[in-house]
Amino acid sequence: MQSRFPTAIPKGIGFLKDYEFVCPKKSYNGSGKGNLRRSENDEAWRVLFLIIESDLLQLEQIEGGYRRENVEVIMDNKQIKTVTHISDRITNEPPYQSYLQHIIDGAAEHHLPEE
Questions:
Q1: Which domains occur in the chain, in start order?
Q2: Which helix (H) or strand (E) is 98 found in, with range?
Q3: Which terminus of the chain has a smaller tally of CB atoms within 10 A, N or C?
Protein backbone atom coordinates (compact mmCIF):
# COMPACT_ATOMS: atom_id res chain seq x y z
CA MET A 1 0.00 0.00 0.00
CA GLN A 2 2.65 2.51 1.01
CA SER A 3 4.75 1.85 -2.08
CA ARG A 4 1.80 2.98 -4.22
CA PHE A 5 0.45 5.61 -1.81
CA PRO A 6 3.12 7.06 0.48
CA THR A 7 0.48 9.05 2.38
CA ALA A 8 -1.20 5.81 3.54
CA ILE A 9 -0.49 5.33 7.24
CA PRO A 10 -0.87 1.88 8.83
CA LYS A 11 -2.93 2.28 12.01
CA GLY A 12 -2.84 -1.31 13.23
CA ILE A 13 -4.44 -4.66 12.62
CA GLY A 14 -7.96 -5.83 13.23
CA PHE A 15 -10.50 -8.32 12.03
CA LEU A 16 -13.94 -8.50 10.51
CA LYS A 17 -16.22 -10.94 12.32
CA ASP A 18 -18.13 -13.45 10.18
CA TYR A 19 -15.95 -12.92 7.09
CA GLU A 20 -13.09 -14.85 5.56
CA PHE A 21 -10.32 -13.75 3.21
CA VAL A 22 -10.46 -15.62 -0.11
CA CYS A 23 -8.94 -15.14 -3.57
CA PRO A 24 -11.66 -15.68 -6.20
CA LYS A 25 -12.05 -12.04 -7.32
CA LYS A 26 -11.60 -11.97 -11.09
CA SER A 27 -8.75 -9.65 -12.07
CA TYR A 28 -8.08 -8.02 -15.41
CA ASN A 29 -5.82 -10.96 -16.33
CA GLY A 30 -8.38 -13.56 -15.23
CA SER A 31 -6.49 -14.75 -12.16
CA GLY A 32 -7.92 -14.73 -8.66
CA LYS A 33 -7.33 -11.76 -6.36
CA GLY A 34 -8.13 -11.04 -2.72
CA ASN A 35 -11.71 -10.65 -1.61
CA LEU A 36 -13.89 -10.98 1.47
CA ARG A 37 -16.75 -13.43 1.79
CA ARG A 38 -19.33 -13.79 4.55
CA SER A 39 -18.55 -16.85 6.63
CA GLU A 40 -20.19 -17.39 10.00
CA ASN A 41 -17.79 -17.72 12.95
CA ASP A 42 -14.73 -16.79 10.87
CA GLU A 43 -12.46 -13.76 11.18
CA ALA A 44 -10.79 -11.92 8.33
CA TRP A 45 -7.70 -10.15 9.64
CA ARG A 46 -6.76 -6.88 7.96
CA VAL A 47 -4.26 -4.07 8.17
CA LEU A 48 -6.09 -0.79 8.71
CA PHE A 49 -4.71 2.21 6.86
CA LEU A 50 -5.53 5.87 7.12
CA ILE A 51 -5.63 7.08 3.52
CA ILE A 52 -6.67 10.39 2.04
CA GLU A 53 -9.82 10.37 -0.10
CA SER A 54 -8.04 11.24 -3.37
CA ASP A 55 -5.65 8.29 -2.91
CA LEU A 56 -8.56 6.01 -2.01
CA LEU A 57 -10.36 7.00 -5.21
CA GLN A 58 -7.18 6.35 -7.21
CA LEU A 59 -6.75 2.96 -5.51
CA GLU A 60 -10.32 2.04 -6.40
CA GLN A 61 -9.70 3.00 -10.03
CA ILE A 62 -6.46 1.00 -10.22
CA GLU A 63 -7.87 -2.12 -8.56
CA GLY A 64 -11.28 -2.06 -10.29
CA GLY A 65 -14.18 -4.42 -9.77
CA TYR A 66 -14.68 -3.78 -6.06
CA ARG A 67 -17.43 -1.87 -4.29
CA ARG A 68 -16.79 0.16 -1.17
CA GLU A 69 -18.62 -1.19 1.86
CA ASN A 70 -18.97 0.22 5.37
CA VAL A 71 -17.95 -2.31 8.03
CA GLU A 72 -16.97 -2.55 11.68
CA VAL A 73 -13.55 -3.99 12.46
CA ILE A 74 -12.42 -5.18 15.87
CA MET A 75 -9.11 -3.51 16.71
CA ASP A 76 -7.60 -3.54 20.19
CA ASN A 77 -10.89 -4.94 21.55
CA LYS A 78 -12.82 -1.95 20.18
CA GLN A 79 -15.24 -1.73 17.25
CA ILE A 80 -13.93 0.66 14.60
CA LYS A 81 -16.14 1.91 11.76
CA THR A 82 -14.26 1.82 8.48
CA VAL A 83 -14.60 0.85 4.83
CA THR A 84 -13.44 -2.19 2.92
CA HIS A 85 -13.80 -3.36 -0.64
CA ILE A 86 -15.70 -6.45 -1.78
CA SER A 87 -16.30 -7.80 -5.28
CA ASP A 88 -19.01 -9.86 -6.91
CA ARG A 89 -16.78 -10.55 -9.93
CA ILE A 90 -15.76 -14.14 -9.25
CA THR A 91 -13.51 -16.57 -11.10
CA ASN A 92 -12.55 -20.21 -10.62
CA GLU A 93 -8.99 -19.41 -11.68
CA PRO A 94 -6.46 -19.50 -8.85
CA PRO A 95 -4.30 -16.53 -7.91
CA TYR A 96 -0.76 -16.42 -9.26
CA GLN A 97 1.87 -17.74 -6.85
CA SER A 98 3.61 -14.35 -6.90
CA TYR A 99 0.36 -12.69 -5.79
CA LEU A 100 -0.06 -15.16 -2.92
CA GLN A 101 3.53 -14.53 -1.85
CA HIS A 102 2.83 -10.78 -1.86
CA ILE A 103 -0.16 -11.39 0.47
CA ILE A 104 1.92 -13.64 2.76
CA ASP A 105 4.78 -11.13 2.89
CA GLY A 106 2.40 -8.27 3.75
CA ALA A 107 0.71 -10.32 6.47
CA ALA A 108 4.10 -11.19 8.00
CA GLU A 109 5.30 -7.58 7.78
CA HIS A 110 2.26 -6.39 9.75
CA HIS A 111 2.23 -9.37 12.15
CA LEU A 112 -1.18 -10.75 11.20
CA PRO A 113 -2.10 -14.09 12.78
CA GLU A 114 -0.87 -16.99 10.67
CA GLU A 115 -4.25 -18.63 10.18
A1: 9-109 (3.10.490.10)
A2: helix 97-109
A3: C
